[in-house]
């Protein structure tokens, strides 16, 4: 399966047997009234971007399907997202062309889909594109029969034919001709393709398969990651290089379970070094905070500049864990950096989180064309003009600009390798990267490290003010339940690990937003998306999109994390309700594990189960851990059985290529080790209880769940877990018990004893 972390397609995927030279028209002159199509009535920022194309776009839905069948037309399906660079390129080159629009409208029913809004549609047809072309990406371009079966597809197509490429106009005309001349053959081919996809994409338990053994699966995954590890710069490839939080999360767990072994030490070193190199690199926005999508080079230097909410949420959690393990304030500072960015730039006033910021923007207010990274990069001349002040106490003649440029690798001619800038958008520009340690930079200019830190902070603030005057990149104000869940987990885990109550409060505010705007109390179901509307109000689609498996999984995970950080049992109660609903809507009782979509939608040709962790972990991977946590909080042991059945369904893949599912490998270890229920008996407001809780939260222990027994026998937890009534405070002090399968240790009142008991 294609990792969702892949950038929108840089290369084009060609259709065989279609070739001819073509010329393409250009958009109409300025001042001519713009065409408006049906997408103007949609809420998705991506669909609205295409509302003035001369293409007669339809949203995914029955109106388009009926038109295709009534008029016996093929469907052209275009899938992308609003911050996708190559989606913008294909729109400028082809979808804004009047001539190409006329061809599309004459021969096809054209449907535009936001992949973030409708991941179900995206996954079905991406499965086809990958299977038939060997690659994939966005924009995704697929041709369907009137009954929605795919028969041809690719990604980005250039408008004109080249020596080794076929142009979009040519593809359209040739496919239209094939439909006219060879309709029966196309229909037969599409049916064969669909049957093959059904067979190859099926994931189900084989015979009496049981969960795979944890040790072998963990060791194989560690060895595969270790072989792909970049010893110099961290990460797990040469280039492009992605953050891959799922790999880091696995390595932290591997260390926790093998901390006395050389392999455990290496796992920790790999994770911490990767996180440090990322934070020093250009993938980290040193002026505006947060992390860009990925690095185009081995050194984490030149990024693809879009910023995605799901990256911020997962990386906040990873850096929080790095701080828990190492105690190094460097990692805590990065957590604060990420959460500052999200709070300032990706937060709705009602409490939800927006989806993304684009990579492209206008370099100046008078620029006609957008450029990638324009909002973030600098010339040496700009920096000298902004930072001219002499630095007192430094080597004679030193300015703020000298210090800053030295530390962040700025070069007079720009520091971007031309090979990483094929369109010359970054020529003469600098992407900031920490080239020197603070100690080396301080020594170079005869400064004390503390003085250097203050100077660099002053420089960053000054550049931030200057950057605020530039045109900002497009902001995708769509709010998705799944990605909000990941961000809630980031805030909640950071609040617990760093003992920052404001982060826990922000997580609770976002969870309340989900309950208000992305949950239907009448049906008890989650909704997929909502949108920032006019006057900054929160709006919903005329027909709301129902939540998918990933929405349930990431929200449930977030609510468990939020309970452990806040001790508000209301979040726990909602999490268990949603877990029951997830079981009802998505569980496969025959093949085991969860489908990504619920049954009953005739427009979806396949019900799939994701089989590869990517930019986000697969929902089934996280579901295993969610089910184990749910069992600990509820006493419903059938959820443990369900977790085992998921592992059984993926057993073959886990044993052969566990590196494709590191989060599920991690969950396999937790399944076999059994989660520890850490119960603190005491008044949540008492200082002794707070000390106990701080101890539990400050220790990285992947196989624990935390709960507080406050003595209120009418509370939700006591009703779920009757054994809590038998646990008492010892000598009137806050007392901790470490339980396994509801059988508890002797009571502990010493924080030091508790810390030792928390080790796996």
TrEMBL record:
SUPFAM superfamilies: Six-hairpin glycosidases, Thioredoxin-like. GO terms for biological process: carbohydrate metabolic process. Residues 36-197 form the Spermatogenesis-associated protein 20-like TRX domain. InterPro entries: 6-hairpin_glycosidase_sf, 6hp_glycosidase-like_sf, Ssp411, Ssp411-like_TRX, Thioredoxin-like_sf. It holds the Pfam family Thioredox_DsbH. Gene3D superfamilies: 1.50.10.10, Glutaredoxin. This is Spermatogenesis associated 20.
């Amino acid at each position: 399966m294609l990792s969702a972390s892949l950038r929108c397609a840089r290369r084009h995927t060609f259709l065989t047997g279609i070739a001819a030279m073509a010329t393409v028209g250009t958009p109409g002159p300025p001042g001519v009234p713009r065409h408006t199509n049906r997408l103007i009535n949609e809420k998705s920022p991506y669909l609205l971007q295409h509302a003035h194309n001369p293409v007669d776009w339809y949203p995914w839905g029955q109106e388009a399907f009926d038109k295709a069948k009534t008029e016996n037309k093929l469907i052209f399906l275009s899938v992308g997202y609003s911050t996708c660079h190559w989606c913008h390129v294909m729109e400028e080159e082809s979808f804004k062309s009047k001539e190409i629009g006329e061809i599309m409208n004459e021969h096809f029913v054209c449907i535009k889909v936001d992949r973030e809004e409708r991941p179900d549609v995206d996954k079905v047809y991406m499965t086809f594109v990958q299977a038939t072309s060997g690659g994939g990406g966005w924009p995704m371009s697929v041709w369907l029969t009137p009954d929605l079966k795919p028969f041809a597809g690719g990604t980005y197509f250039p408008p004109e034919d080249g020596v080794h490429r076929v142009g979009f106009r040519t593809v359209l005309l040739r496919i239209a001709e094939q439909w006219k001349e060879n309709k029966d053959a196309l229909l037969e081919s599409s049916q064969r393709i669909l049957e093959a996809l059904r067979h190859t994409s099926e994931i189900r338990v084989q015979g009496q398969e049981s969960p795979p053994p944890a040790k072998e699966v963990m060791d194989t995954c560690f060895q595969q990651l270790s072989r792909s590890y970049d010893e110099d710069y961290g990460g797990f490839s040469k280039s492009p290089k992605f953050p891959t939080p799922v790999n880091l999360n696995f390595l932290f767990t591997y260390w926790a379970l093998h901390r006395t072994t050389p392999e455990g030490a290496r796992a920790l070193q790999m994770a911490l070094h990767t996180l440090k190199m990322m934070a020093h690199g250009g993938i980290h926005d040193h002026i505006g905070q947060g992390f860009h999508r990925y690095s185009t080079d081995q050194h984490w230097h030149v990024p693809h500049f879009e910023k995605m909410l799901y990256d911020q949420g997962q990386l906040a959690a990873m850096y929080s864990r790095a701080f828990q393990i190492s105690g190094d304030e460097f990692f805590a500072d990065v957590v604060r950096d990420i959460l500052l960015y999200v709070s300032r730039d990706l937060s709705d006033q009602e409490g939800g989180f927006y989806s993304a910021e684009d990579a492209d923007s206008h370099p100046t207010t008078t620029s006609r064309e957008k450029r990638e990274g324009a909002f973030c990069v600098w010339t040496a001349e700009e920096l000298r003009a902004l930072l001219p002040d002499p630095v007192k106490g430094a080597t004679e003649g030193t300015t703020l600009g000298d210090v800053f440029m030295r530390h962040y690798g700025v070069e007079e001619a720009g520091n971007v390798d031309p090979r990483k800038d094929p369109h010359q958008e970054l020529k003469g520009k600098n992407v900031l990267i920490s080239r020197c340690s603070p100690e080396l930079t301080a020594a170079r200019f005869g400064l004390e490290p503390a003085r250097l830190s203050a100077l660099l902070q002053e420089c960053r603030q000054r550049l931030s003010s200057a950057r605020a005057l530039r045109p900002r990149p497009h902001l995708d104000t769509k709010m998705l339940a799944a990605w909000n869940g990941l961000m809630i987990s980031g805030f909640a885990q950071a609040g617990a690990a760093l003992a920052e109550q404001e982060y826990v409060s922000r997580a609770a505010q976002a969870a309340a937003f989900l309950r208000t705007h992305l949950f239907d109390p009448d049906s008890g179901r989650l909704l997929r998306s909502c949108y920032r509307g006019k006057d900054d109000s929160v709006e919903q689609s005329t027909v709301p999109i129902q939540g998918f498996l990933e929405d349930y999984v990431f929200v449930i995970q977030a609510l468990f994390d939020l309970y452990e950080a806040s001790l508000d049992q209301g979040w726990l109660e909602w999490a268990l309700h949603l877990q029951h609903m997830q079981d009802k809507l998505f569980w496969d009782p025959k093949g085991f594990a969860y489908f990504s979509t619920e049954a009953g939608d005739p427009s979806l040709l396949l019900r799939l189960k994701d089989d590869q962790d990517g930019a986000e972990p697969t929902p089934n991977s996280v579901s295993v851990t969610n089910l184990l946590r749910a069992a600990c909080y509820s006493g419903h042991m059938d959820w443990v059985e369900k977790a085992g059945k998921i592992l059984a369904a993926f057993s073959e893949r886990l044993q052969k290529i566990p590196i494709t599912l590191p989060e599920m490998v991690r969950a396999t270890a937790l399944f076999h080790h059994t989660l520890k229920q850490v119960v603190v008996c005491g008044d949540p407001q008492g200082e002794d209880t707070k000390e106990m809780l701080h101890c539990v939260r400050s220790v990285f222990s992947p196989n624990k769940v935390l709960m507080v027994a406050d003595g209120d026998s009418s509370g939700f937890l006591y009703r779920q877990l009757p054994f809590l009534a038998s646990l008492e405070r010892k000598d009137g002090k806050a007392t901790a018990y470490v339980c396994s399968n509801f059988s508890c240790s002797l009571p502990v009142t010493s924080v030091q004893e508790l810390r030792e008991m928390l080790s796996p």
